[in-house]
Amino acid sequence: MIRMANGTVNTLRRELLLASRRRGELANPLLFFVMMAALVPLGISPQSTVLAELAPGMIWVMALLATLLSLEPLFAEDYRDGSLDQLLLAADGMAFAVLGKMLAHWLVTGLPLTLVAPLLATLLALPAAGWLPLLASLLVGTLALSFIGAMGAALTVSLQRSGVLLTLIVMPLYVPVIIFGSATVQRAIEGFSWLAPLALLATLAVAAIALCPLVVVGALRLTASE
């Protein structure tokens, strides 16, 4: 077990090192997130009352779309350079290595999106009561987005230009995350307790962390062998 856990840590360290060498590419989802928030007042309404009403759902939808932008290369580069075949040979520790890759994806995508959320809250006139629930829900929810999205990336790893198919696969699975994430913020703004939807969102994230690596391993074995 210790050896397998070390596989997760080693893979995580490797992925973060590789990510540090392509910072421009990794910045695209974050730039998309911010630019979309800046364009919403221009396309809908600059009135703060209108923006505040739409802000919880809009921020979560933008987080989802930004995550989708970063999913396609998650396993594709390993598939092209042959390192995925080496990973498949490690039968016992493959799930732990996959877990490391998925955690690295969240650290370089989901966590930055969460940290920049206060800026978006300001741009969209989100009431102060919704700031803490927004950060908490994004911190938990983006974990679920990364892990669920990895299943779609694994299923489409052998396809060229798989972005549309990947989106079609994971979008239905993202619906509960969006519902509970935006509900967490909305309930806080309305003055109600927001812990219940946050707990449901955390349950989804824990289930994704526990189950998705196993599903991804099976999907990679299926698609990489084709």
TrEMBL record:
This is Heme exporter protein B. The chain crosses the membrane at residues 26-45, 57-75, 128-151, 163-183, 195-220. Required for the export of heme to the periplasm for the biogenesis of c-type cytochromes. Belongs to the CcmB/CycW/HelB family. PANTHER family: CYTOCHROME C BIOGENESIS B-RELATED, HEME EXPORTER PROTEIN B. GO terms for molecular function: heme transmembrane transporter activity. Coiled coil: none annotated. One of its GO terms (biological process) is cytochrome c biosynthetic process. GO terms for cellular component: plasma membrane. It comes from the Bacteria.
